[in-house]
Write a structure and sequence with these properties.
By secondary structure, this protein is mainly α. It contains 4 helices and no strands. The protein has helices at about 10-20, 30-45, 65-80, 90-100. α1 packs antiparallel against α2, α1 packs across α3 and α3 runs antiparallel to α4. The chain is globular, with a radius of gyration of 13 Å. About 35% of the residues are buried.
C-alpha cells in the first residue's frame, strides 16, 4: 500500500459537511483536525517520517460534493489513515455511515481524492 496526506480541501469537505449534517457546524474544525491528525500519523508511521500534526484549514471546501462523493472521500481518507497499529477506523466509519444513509442511488462515485 502507498499512503498520502489528503489535502486540506479533501478533509475540510468531509468535516464541514458532516458537522452540518449532524447539526453541529461549530464542530467542523475539531472534526477536521482529528481526521488530519489520524492521516498524518498514518503516513508518518508508514514512511518513518516526522511530519508535524497541525490544524486543518477549512478555507477550501468542495461546494458540490454529493453524499456519494462524501462516502468516497471518507473511504479514501480511511485507507490513507489505517497504517498504525491500533487504528480502529471508528471515527471515519461513523462519518461515512451518516453520509451513506443519505445516498439516494447507492454508494457510487468516481471521486477518490480532491
Amino acid at each position: 500500500m502507498s499512503a498520502f496526506i489528503c489535502s486540506a480541501r479533501h478533509i475540510a469537505t468531509v468535516a464541514t459537511n458532516y458537522a452540518q449534517l449532524i447539526g453541529q457546524p461549530e464542530e467542523a474544525q475539531t472534526i477536521a483536525d482529528k481526521l488530519l491528525a489520524d492521516n498524518i500519523v498514518s503516513v508518518n508511521y508508514r514512511y518513518n517520517e516526522e511530519t508535524p500534526v497541525e490544524p486543518c484549514s477549512l478555507e477550501e471546501v468542495e461546494p458540490d460534493a454529493s453524499f456519494e462523493d462524501l462516502v468516497a472521500l471518507c473511504a479514501c481518507l480511511d485507507y490513507q489513515s489505517c497504517e498504525p497499529p491500533g487504528y480502529d477506523g471508528q471515527f471515519i466509519a461513523q462519518i461515512k455511515g451518516q453520509f451513506a444513509k443519505n445516498c439516494r442511488t447507492g454508494v457510487k462515485s468516481k471521486l477518490w481524492s480532491i
